[in-house]
Amino acid sequence: MIALVVGLSAFLGMSLNLAFSASLTQPDWSLALLLAAMLAHRKNWLWVLPCTLMHDLMLHWSVGISFIIMALIPFAMIYLDQSLGPGIPQRVLLLMIAVTLSLTEWGWGLQTVLLTLCLCVPLWYMLTGLYAKKTA
Amino acid sequence: MAVRRRYKLWLVAVFLIVGLFSLSRFSVGSWPMLVSWPALEVLHAPVQWWGSFSLWFKDSAALQEQFLAFRKKAEQQAALIQESNALREENRQLRKILDISGIKGYRWHAAKVRGRSPEKMSQRILLQVYGVSRDDVIVSSEGLVGVVDSTSDNHATVRTIFDASLSVPVTIPGKSLAALSRGQGKSLAIDFVPLAAAPEPGEILYTSGAGGMYPPGIAVARITNVQPIPGQLFVTVSAEPVAHWQRDNWLAVASHLHEAP
């Protein structure tokens, strides 16, 4: 259910980016949602990766660095969890790297990068809470 | 055991990077953007509703003032149309005398911008338009924007001149320059400019019409930098587009008229 809601919201976010990119400074809604879902639960890669692929194809007509980074995040999370233990600083670092590299590669502005980071953090917090509630 | 698992993890990650990097080199095309048009229509609808709704709350005096201003503008335009008709006829007669043909082989029509990719200067645009086909030329009031990449019943995607896959034959009127403008993502590169014919920064390049894809005489790029390279035949020239399509809500389409077999 969470996957469906996040997936549909990501599609809506992509459409918002396409429809109002000239009139509003917006975050990359879908990237923020998908990244938050990936950081909240690493097993989410199964549906987050196809959605990221769709994000790249719809906005940029090609598979870009955001898909590559999203594909590597689960590996980085496994490695960091094994060597340093699960922790917020590692995940924040991954989040910042992913957003900055993905958006600057496509030529998005600094404001968009900051807005995406600001959106991603509360979404990540919210999704982590939802998964914790589901497990409990 | 832990070392072996870590080794496997890195191996998979390396394979994944190589695989994905190879995949990213392929341009998949514009169909995902084209299929998004129903969602974009839905998102635009509230904005249009708000526009119509807000008219109810506008002061009638302000509306009356706007109406009078529009009527005055319409009268001025009628006079201009009359003058342009006279000039067009005069131009036709002069062309006939000088034996010069105009821009033929294109049908011009307008298209509404429905969506654009979110870079600072969009590389792709989604238009609501009827009766266009692939490779039709898109122009704004300022200059060349790009070409149609794919079409559906009433929508089309546009590849702008920033796209690396587009090369536009350009020239400077009155000069013998025959160069090629190539998209570089955030700027334009002008290829095959000989040192002897190097333009000055600020000069405007126009479509030359070579190849028959673009109508001649459309402004394409403004030169920003000219860099001669010692020992090389051609200079390195960079430019910026003349058109600013990030602001335009309407664009013009020049459709190729294909002759009947």
In short:
Chain A has 136 residues and is an all-alpha fold. Chain A has helices spanning 2-19, 29-40, 45-60, 65-83, 88-105, 110-135.
How many helix segments of chain A?
6
Portion of residues in beta strands of chain B equals 25-35%
Q: Major sheet of chain A, described briefly?
A: none
Tell me the Rg of chain A in angstroms: 14 Å
State mean pLDDT of chain A (0 to 100 scale): 86
CATH topology of the domain at 167-241 in chain B: Thrombin, subunit H
Biggest interface and its residues per chain? A-B, 36 and 41 residues
Question: What's the number of extended β-strand segments of chain B?
Answer: 12
- Poorly predicted tracts of residues of chain B: none
Element order of chain A: H for helix, E for strand: HHHHHH
Q: What is the arithmetic mean of pLDDT of chain B?
A: 81
Sum up the structure in keywords.
heterodimer; A: 136 residues; mainly alpha; 6 helices; 80% helix; globular; B: 261 residues; alpha+beta; Thrombin, subunit H; six-stranded antiparallel beta barrel; six-stranded antiparallel barrel; 4 helices; 12 strands; 32% helix
Model description:
- The complex is a heterodimer of chains A (136) and B (261).
- Chain A has 136 residues and is mainly alpha-helical.
- In chain A, 80% of the residues lie in helices and 0% in strands.
- The mean pLDDT of chain A is 86.
- Chain B is α+β, with helices and mostly antiparallel strands and 261 residues long.
- Chain B has helices at 2-24, 31-34, 37-54, 60-98, and strands at 106-116, 124-128, 137-139, 144-151, 155-160, 167-171, 179-183, 188-194, 204-207, 219-227, 234-241, 250-256.
- Chain B has a 6-stranded antiparallel beta barrel. In chain B, strands 6-7-8-11-10-9 form a 6-stranded antiparallel β-barrel.
- At the A-B interface, helix 1, helix 3 and helix 4 of A face helix 1, helix 3 and strand 1 of B.
